[in-house]
Specification:
MetI-like fold, 2 domains, single chain, about 325 residues, two-stranded antiparallel sheet, 17 helices
Length: about 325
């Protein structure tokens, strides 16, 4: 019997004993034990990612998580250092050069990751890809927020001919997969001269039907009396939108910004097609190039993946409360 099975049996036996002695305490124990076990299972992929990113590339596939402490300082022979066979070496200095004592837990993957990458456009540092992703995600979020909130406000509070048909058409367009429109989008972007520019990624995503629908649902809950009061006080339509409407839908704004930022940050297909220059690539495309047909740098790839999840994680924890309340706003009719 393995240690994990023994541990689970002990937990189950302890829960059974508590349930027989004090049923209320036993139910609470079972509930919290299940939450801890499920939470542990959910965290295992992140623990594996952290473990793989700090393991030496020579032993990255030898252990599921971290290697045992007894082999943390075991000797390893790197492929690049095997210039001469060890059994044919007579000079002790060459033996030491061929075989190095390298810790199986080290920062080699991160050191290699932050080394300049040679490209046809010149050396590119890994921080360049992070800056590209931050710029694309921030710009796409800002543009999408402006146009989607304006469109949602118009769809919620303005009465114009064809509004119902336009809303039905917009919702129906959500059923069309984005891959189906890839060929016509490529043709349009090519003819506009946007190839290998960030405009090819930002301009088509300025208006989001999903974002317009989210803001429409949130703005529908705002009483019309607030808008009428602003008009009576002499406020223009843009001022009403900016100073009266947007502060009242702040939870939805936070939810939309988080969803849009994450979607752009993880976007791979469009940047991989429309961008050709290496210095312009975002982080997902640059990381994908580390694992190819003839070169598999999994250690560096996993180290870059660990760095790539940090900005979205910080943004999510900063907007967590607004994100949850924003997703539920507009779900109940006022």
């Amino acid at each position: 019997m393995s240690g994990l099975q023994t541990f689970l049996l002990v937990l189950a036996g302890l829960g059974l004993v508590l349930f027989l002695i004090r049923p209320k305490l036993g139910r609470a124990y079972v509930r919290y034990a299940m939450l801890i076990l499920v939470g542990t299972l959910m965290m295992l992929p992140f623990v594996w990612l952290i473990s793989a990113s700090v393991k030496d590339p020579d032993v990255i596939n030898d252990y599921t998580f971290l290697p045992p402490p007894s082999v943390w300082r075991s000797p390893s022979v790197r492929e690049g250092d095997q210039r001469v066979a060890v059994d044919e070496v007579t000079d002790q200095a060459l033996v030491n050069e061929a075989t190095r004592v390298e810790s199986t837990i080290n920062s080699r993957n991160f050191r290699d990751l932050w080394t300049d990458q040679q490209t046809p456009q010149g050396p590119v540092h890994f921080s360049r890809y992070i800056i590209n992703s931050l710029f694309l995600s921030s710009a796409a979020t800002t543009l999408g927020l402006i146009f989607s909130s304006m469109g949602g406000y118009a769809m919620a509070k303005y009465r114009f001919p064809g509004r119902s048909g336009l809303l039905a058409f917009m919702l129906a367009s959500l059923t069309i997969p984005g891959v189906v429109l890839l060929a016509p989008n490529f043709e349009i972007i090519y003819r506009l001269g946007f190839m290998d520019t960030y405009a090819a990624l930002l301009i088509p995503g300025c208006v989001s039907v999903f974002g317009i629908f989210l803001f429409r649902q949130a703005i529908l809950g705002i009483p019309d009396d607030i808008i009428e009061a602003g008009r009576i006080d002499g406020a223009g339509e843009f001022r009403i939108y900016l100073t009266l409407i947007m502060p009242l839908v702040r939870p939805m704004t936070s939810a939309f910004c988080l969803i849009t930022f994450l979607g752009t940050w993880n976007s791979f297909l469009a940047p991989n097609i429309f961008l050709q220059s290496q210095p312009k690539l975002p982080l997902p495309v640059a990381l994908n190039q580390l694992v190819g047909v003839y070169d598999q740098q999994y250690g560096i790839y996993l180290a870059g993946t660990l760095i790539a999840i940090v900005p979205p994680a910080i943004l999510f924890f900063a907007l967590q409360r607004e994100f949850i309340s924003g997703l539920t706003s507009g779900s109940v009719k006022q």
